[in-house]
Amino acid sequence: MTGEPAHEGRGATSASAAARQSALKNRATFDLSTSGTPPRCRLVGGESSYDTDPSMIEQSQPPPRAPGSPRPSSGPYSGFRLIREGFRGQRGWTRAWAKPDPRPRYRVLIVGGGGHGLATAFYLAREFGIRDVAVLERGPIGLGNVGRNTTIIRSNYFQPANVRFYEFSLKLWEGLEQTLNFNAMVSQRGTLNLYHSEAQRDLFTRRANTMRLEGIDAESLTREEVKRRVPLVDLDNGRYPVLGGYLQPRGGTVRHDAVAWGYARAASEAGVDIIEHCEVIGIRREGGRVAGVVTTRGPIDAETVCLAVAGHSSRLAALAGLTLPLESHVLQAFVSESVKPMLDVVVTYGAGHFYASQSDKGGLVFGGAIDGYNSYGQRGALPMAEEVAAAAITLMPGLARLKVVRQWGGVMAMTMDGSPIISRPPLAGLIRHGGWCYGGFKAIPAGGMTTAHLIARGVPHPLAAHLNLERFATGHTVDERGAGPFPYAH
Ligand SMILES: Cc1cc2nc3c(=O)[nH]c(=O)nc-3n(C[C@H](O)[C@H](O)[C@H](O)COP(=O)(O)OP(=O)(O)OC[C@H]3O[C@@H](n4cnc5c(N)ncnc54)[C@H](O)[C@@H]3O)c2cc1C
Predict the structure, then answer these.
(1) Ligand 1 contact via 487 beta carbon (within 6 Å)
(2) Residues 6+ apart with CB under 8 A from 482
């Protein structure tokens, strides 16, 4: 994709000659690197290409945009367009989302350009008509947990309020590609949870029944049915024989980067400013309320500041003078070399924290538990790698011959009860969103929609009302696993 967004209004018409030369140089350099045909340069926002004539570039600058007004679309993404661009040298693609400089003031600032921050911005603009919004991201978007997770979506929770919230998310996932006009590779291949004891079977049966009472799909599988579905599983493994499983057929996986890109593109077109490489380093308070932020690109004022910074939640809350009931821990993931199709469902081990799926490229994707110590480092340690490998080989001995080719870590905000927080903390103008623990990817559409509702309407969305911050003071915790107030245990 090429081209600086001409509609950003910082055009050469008002710039000095030197700035104009610099802008031209940047444009030309970009296009050289992408097209490989030096004399050509593409007219951004249009469909034609032309030689690099400075006066033509100057003429291409439209007047400045009104804050929050929708941007010209980067065009529909479709099979037909792919074919058409194939015939015309791929010259018709424009940048998927704009790269504006920050303005001095916005109605809403969202700190964190992960899945939740971008989704919140998108739904604010699309569902609630609030477009004077900026997303501030300290790096490029997609490099946080939204691009580091193991891509699993499901709604097989136990507590009824959680079941409804995650089912809402799953329903949004089911229509997301149409909503965003972006191929996010939503694959409802099913999620299968295995059980290994009678007690665990009872627990899982209750969970499946809770889901069914909410009208959600859940199927009980016998040992034989598990074997038919996942031939790789060693049912009679010496350590924890498999007694059966329960399946949510509508669970599955989604291409994680595409989720960030799709929401960014749609939010940008709706008028949201996505400002990358802009770290928030301070939160400004005035008259007992939040008045804006201080960033590495200068101060920005806002009526409302929403923190959606995942594993960095406690650091950002501290900037506002708040302490949150959560800790940051590292969670790792692993990918094997590509192999032929061998696993067409997401399978979860019940005798340890281990799960696996096969990506569309053929690599097996594994995950385990958090590393268990507090950290902001985006990399894991070897003991968890060993634990995941042991669980993998116990459950599916055939995996012993696979080579792991990549491993990485992400920083997780783990709350005291294992459930997230979408709430107004006791500081006017601030919205707190985070504490997603292991499960924030699947929650992105619902998290974004319900946070946008809280910002726009000033009251919690009914499906997220139980995720308030006060629950930790009143004792109404949402402890899905019954593990108690220990962040590392959820
Ligand atoms: C290895 C791994 C596997 C996982 N697997 C799954 C799974 O299978 N299913 C599932 O549902 N969930 C999974 N998760 C959890 C899920 O990825 C997260 O809960 C979710 O992505 C967090 O929300 P986010 O996308 O908004 O976070 P992020 O993408 O991390 O977004 C937060 C952003 O805030 C930015 N930021 C931080 N500080 C600042 C600052 N001061 N100024 C500006 N920006 C800042 C960061 O750079 C980051 O981009 C997994 C996580 C990991 C690490």
Answers:
(1) no
(2) none
Query: Into how many domains does the chain fold?
Result: 2
- The CB density around residue 488, as the number of other CB atoms within 10 Å, is 14
Side chain identity, residue 205: T
Q: Are residues 341 and 409 in the same domain?
A: yes
Contact 148, 409 (CB under 8 A): yes
Pocket test for ligand 1, best of 295, 312, 441 (most atoms within 8 A of CB): 441
- pLDDT of 271 higher than 70: yes
Domain co-membership, 267 together with 408: no
Question: Which tokens is 431 given?
Answer: 């919205």
At 12, the pLDDT band (50, 70, 90 cuts) reads: very low
Please check whether residues 332 and 290 belong to one and the same domain.
Answer: no
Condensed to tens digits (0 to 9), the pLDDT of residues 435-454 reads 999 999 999 999 999 999 99
Confidence of residue 2 (pLDDT cuts 50, 70, 90): very low
Strand pairing partners for 421? 434
- Note the pLDDT tens digit of each residue in 29-68: 323 233 333 323 332 333 333 333 444 434 444 456 788 8
Are 278 and 402 within one domain? no
Q: How many whole angstroms from 88 Cα to the centroid of ligand 1?
A: 38
Q: Measure the N-to-C terminal CA separation of the chain; round to a whole number of Å.
A: 41
Same domain, 317 and 192: no
Q: Are residues 331 and 386 in the same domain?
A: yes
Q: Specify whether 351 is located in the same domain as 380.
A: yes
* Cβ of residue 272 lying under 6 Å from some atom of ligand 1: no
In a domain, 276, yes or no: yes
CATH code, domain with 302: 3.50.50.60
Report residue 480 as tokens: 């899905």
Of ligand 1's atoms, which has the minimum distance to the CA of residue 115? 25
436: Cβ below 6 Å to ligand 1? Answer: yes
Token pair of 126 as six digits: 């699309």
What's 195's domain CATH number? 3.30.9.10
- Cβ of residue 333 lying under 6 Å from some atom of ligand 1: yes
> Residue 431 is part of which domain span?
105-146+257-322+420-489
Whether 112 is in the pocket of ligand 1, judged by its Cβ within 6 Å, is yes
Instruction: For 120-182, give the DSSP string.
Output: HHHHHHHHH----EEEE-SSSTTSSGGGTS--EE----SSHHHHHHHHHHHHHHHHHHHHHTS
Mark whether 463 and 356 lie in a shared domain.
no
